[in-house]
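@channel sequence for tomorrow's demo:
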Amino acid sequence: KTGGVYIPPFKLARMMAEQGAQDKASPEYQRLTWEALKKSLNGIINKINTVNIKNMLPEVFRENLIRGRGLFCRSLMKSQAASPGYSPVYAALVAVVNTKFPELGELLLSRLILQFKRSFKRNDKPVCTAAAKFLAHLVNQGVAHEVLALEVLILLLEAPSEDSVEMAVEFVREVGAHLQDVAPQGLHGVFERFRAILHEGSISKRVQFIIEGMFALRKAGFEASGFPALKPELDLVEGEDQITHEMGLDDALQAQTNLDIFRVDPDYEEEERKYAVIAKEILGDEEEEEGGGGAEGAAGEAADDEGADDDDDDEDGGDPGSGGGGGSGGGGIHDATATNLVNLRRTIYLTLMSSFDFEEAGHKLLKIGIQPGQVRRLVTMIIECCSQERTFKRFYGLLAQRFCYLNRAYAEQFEDCFRKQYAVIHRLETNKLRNVSCLFAHLLATDALPWSSLSCIMLTEEETTSSSRIFIKYLFQELSSTMGLVKLNQRLNDPAFSPWFEGLFPRDSLGNMRFSINFFTSIGLGGVTDVMREQYKSAVAAQAAAQQQQVAKRMLGSGSGSDSGSSSSDSSSSDDSSSDSSSSSDSDSDDS
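structure tokens (generated this afternoon):
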């Protein structure tokens, strides 16, 4: 057992070889490998800097980071506390490791937050300053959410003292450029708090000068003043690949200090084999290059040659199917966890929430690089964010209008979403329903959305529900307030658009016409049904005339029947009288 005693590297290697030859699962061998892992991680972290960070990353991933995650986090925190100037380098290292092992980033954040809170309560300024600086650069790298940075600033400025204000100024210098991009309103609130502290005058002149210097730095620009969010050489992770941990100061966090202590693992060999497979997947290309002299390297070179031959064949215009074997062997990895979709939705949401106005939001969203297949995701997120607001904000209407004007594809997606949203409108609460209807009304009023989308609405008692009638009510009331009743009436009665409004103003039956007229009258828009009222009156008059004609025909029919009956009775009576006269004449002749 080492017991923390220094052992020369050659002697440690010899001891490991001896123990490994006997039993690799023995506690002695596991302790030796644990000590070797600790020294290796310490050495790598102490050697890393801005110049060699890309070359040191493969060495980091070759170590068993899953087994030594506690050692990794402890070594990082110790090195950063000893050299706070290297915080951006260590944060860049954590950002890369976090993309492959998110549990390491989460563990480091938990320990840093706990250390910051503990040192803040103890008034331990050096430790608190170092932890805050590390957290600031993790926020810059996207490992921690920007809400954590705002919570730290609120805590420091809630009950301002000279030390807390000075720490807050240092923290803003480190993270201000990032907050300026993703949360400008939150940063504005922080500077308003700084301004209030200046006006209170409860701090010393030295700290007041520090705050005034902070305002001057903000005015000149963080990047122009030498405080960028990320240096180009430390920007190693793409935004869509980063995994952001949403952790706050009030969360129940665990430091998991038991991970720093050696424990015998009964499945040691199996865990080592599993990590070897993971490391090979991460460093596959580099491992093959290093092992090029062996059998695996030769096989890799042969496979590369075959792939090159297949590529040459394809470029020469050969049969695409001839390279099918090589293509299947070197196929890309398909993400079936929808991680990219979740990251895209998160990015869109954060962009919308952090933008000052719709122009800034549109500019940021276009910089994201929305692919053609992701247009629908963007449109859906705009509608969902709008529905979540307490009241309708024109911010979303203007943003959607700008995208519809920018590209026809966005207008088509909004039209499709309108039809699908109306089909499932019964699923929305009243507040969400109002916001969505006002959003689409704004798009219709500005002609950003084609009016043909209203063709999906059938305003009849059988085809509508209470939710759909509320949606139509808010939609047309918003249209009336935006366009004016006269202009809306002209648009609805335009012969060129009339085929799209046949469902809104049905003319197939008097009952449906009456229902539509009563509906618009009840919501205060009876003026849009003037033409329909005239048609309804004409239809009612025509129906009444038709009924009168039918009654007259029936009356005429009954009158002709009675006339024929009376004539037949008259003829029968005349026949009887003639027979009576003839019989009387016969009797007279007999008497004579």
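heads up for whoever presents: Confidence is low (pLDDT under 50) at residues 285-331, 566-592.
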